[in-house]
Design a protein that fits this description.
The strands form three sheets. Strands 2-1-11-5-10-9-6-8-7 form a nine-stranded mixed β-sheet, with helices on both faces. The longest helix is centred in the middle third of the chain and has 18 residues. It is 39% helix and 20% strand. Helix 2 packs parallel to helix 3, helix 6 packs parallel to helix 7 and helix 7 runs parallel beside helix 8. Helix 13 links the parallel strand 16 and strand 17. It is built from 14 helices and 19 strands. The protein has two domains: 214 residues, P-loop containing nucleotide triphosphate hydrolases (Rossmann fold, 3-Layer(aba) Sandwich), CATH 3.40.50; 167 residues, Rossmann fold.
Length: 393
C-alpha cells in the first residue's frame, strides 16, 4: 500500500486505530481483528477529517474504510444529516446500508436511511421523518428528495463517493456536483474506487484540499485468487454450448455470466433455462423488487447462474461465487477488473472464463491482458471437439 506515493506497512490491527469500544465490539462480533490495507490506510486520516482519494480493488473492504470513521464522528443527540454516502447503484447503496448497521449496532441513537429508485418514494420520505444522521443514496433519488424539500444537507460534515469512477461514468456528474455544492459545512470528502478516472480527479481538484492519496495494488493477498481462462471460438454460435458444458462439467453451483446489453442478458438467461440450467437475468429494466428477489434466490442457491449487465452487477455483495463467464468481452477494460472482482473474494478460489469469438473480441482481450498485466490461460477446441489448454510461449 502507498500513501501519498510512499510505501507503508499494510499489517494494521483494528485495536491499534483508537476506535471506540462500541465499534470494537461490533467488529468482534464478526471476528474481525486485522484491518484490510485500504481500511488501515483510510481510517486514521478520515478520523482526522482529512480529504482522501482511495484506490483499491473490488472486495477489499472499502465500506468499512469510510464507514467506521463516519460512525465514530456521528453525534447521536443531533437530528441533522451529518454524513452522506453516494453510490451509483441501488444494490451497492443497500449493501452499504447493511454494513453501516453492523457498525453502529451498539451505538444508541444513530439512524440511517437508504434512498434509491425503484421503491415507493413515500416510504422513503417517512423514513426521512425519523431524522437520520446518515444518508446513503443514489444521486438521482437524492436529487428528487431535495426537490421535494424532504431532505436537508446543509449540516453534512462528511461526504463519500463510493465507486466514484463508475458513478461519474454513468452520467451522474452533474447531480454529484449539485449535491456537493449543497453542503457548505462539509469538513471532508472521500473518493473511493477501484480505478481513478479523469472525472474523479476533476472532482478532487475542485472539491478537495490537499487530499491524502491511498493506493492498494491488486497483488498478493489483495488480488482475488482467480484462475483466468480465455477461450478462443470459431464463431459466436459456440458460446452457448461451451458455457453449458463448463457449468455442468465444472460442477459450479453459483456462477455469474456477464453480457454487454440488456437484450443479450435476457436472451442468454432464456437459452440457459432451455438447457435445464436454473438462471435469472438482472439489469436496469427489471423492477427493483424483482431484482432483490432474484439476488436472494441466487444467494440461497435456488438460482444457479445469474446473468447480468455491468451496471446491474456493480457493487453486488455476493460471496462464494464459483465462476464467472464473460459471455461478451467487456467494452471497457475497467469492466473486466470489476467483473472478476465478483468471484475469488475473501481469499477464496474462483475461476473466470472469457469467450473470444471475433476479431473485435481478440483486439479487446489482447489490450486487456497487456494493460492489466493479468496471467491468462488459453483454451481452444481441438479437431476432435475437445476443449484443450494451449501452450503459450
Amino acid at each position: 500500500m502507498e500513501i501519498n506515493g510512499v510505501e507503508v506497512d499494510e499489517n494494521i490491527r483494528y485495536d491499534s486505530l483508537g476506535l471506540s469500544p462500541e465499534i470494537m465490539r461490533a467488529l468482534g462480533d464478526k471476528g474481525y481483528v486485522n484491518a484490510t490495507p485500504v481500511q488501515g490506510g483510510s481510517i486514521p486520516y478520515m478520523m482526522d477529517w482529512k480529504d482522501i482519494v482511495a484506490k483499491a480493488p473490488t472486495g477489499t473492504g472499502k465500506t468499512f474504510a469510510f464507514g467506521i470513521p463516519i460512525v465514530e464522528h456521528i453525534d447521536p443527540e443531533a437530528a441533522e444529516v451529518q454524513a452522506l454516502i453516494l453510490a451509483p447503484t441501488r444494490e451497492l447503496a443497500l449493501q452499504i446500508q447493511d454494513e453501516l448497521r453492523l457498525l453502529f449496532k451498539y451505538r444508541e441513537g444513530i439512524r440511517s436511511v437508504c434512498l434509491y429508485g425503484g421503491q415507493p418514494i413515500n416510504k422513503q420520505i417517512n423514513q426521512l421523518k425519523k431524522r437520520p444522521q446518515i444518508v446513503v443514496a443514489t444521486p438521482g433519488r437524492l436529487m428528487d428528495m431535495h426537490k421535494r424539500h424532504t431532505v436537508r444537507l446543509d449540516k453534512v460534515l462528511t461526504v463519500v463517493l463510493d465507486e466514484a469512477d463508475r458513478m461519474l461514468d454513468m452520467g451522474f456528474i452533474e447531480d454529484v456536483v449539485r449535491i456537493l455544492d449543497m453542503m457548505p459545512q462539509r469538513k471532508n470528502l472521500g473518493l473511493f474506487s477501484a480505478t481513478i478516472s479523469r472525472e474523479v480527479m476533476d472532482i478532487s481538484w475542485v472539491y478537495q484540499r490537499d487530499p491524502v492519496e491511498i493506493t492498494v495494488r491488486p497483488v498478493e493477498e489483495n488480488r482475488p485468487d482467480i484462475q483466468q481462462y480465455r477461450i478462443d471460438l470459431d464463431d459466436r454460435e459456440r458460446k452457448l454450448p461451451t458455457m453449458v458444458a463448463l457449468v455442468r462439467n465444472g460442477g459450479y453451483e453459483r456462477a455469474i455470466a456477464f453480457c454487454n446489453t440488456k437484450n443479450m442478458t435476457d436472451r442468454l438467461a432464456a437459452l440457459l433455462k432451455m438447457q435445464g440450467i436454473s438462471c435469472a437475468p438482472i439489469h436496469g429494466d427489471i423492477p427493483q423488487k424483482v431484482r432483490e428477489q432474484t439476488l436472494q434466490s441466487f444467494r440461497n442457491g435456488e438460482v444457479r447462474v445469474l446473468v447480468a449487465t455491468d451496471v446491474a452487477a456493480r457493487g453486488l455483495d455476493i460471496d462464494d461465487v464459483d465462476a464467472f463467464f464473460n459471455y461478451d468481452v467487456p467494452d471497457e477494460q475497467e469492466y473486466y477488473v470489476h467483473r472478476i472482482g465478483r468471484t475469488g473474494r475473501a481469499k477464496k478460489h474462483g475461476v473466470a472464463y472469457t469467450f473470444v469469438a471475433s476479431i473485435t473480441d481478440q483486439i479487446k482481450m489482447d489490450e486487456i491482458s497487456r494493460n492489466q498485466k493479468m496471467e491468462m490461460s488459453l483454451l481452444r477446441y481441438d479437431k476432435d471437439g475437445c476443449l484443450m489448454l494451449v501452450e503459450q510461449d
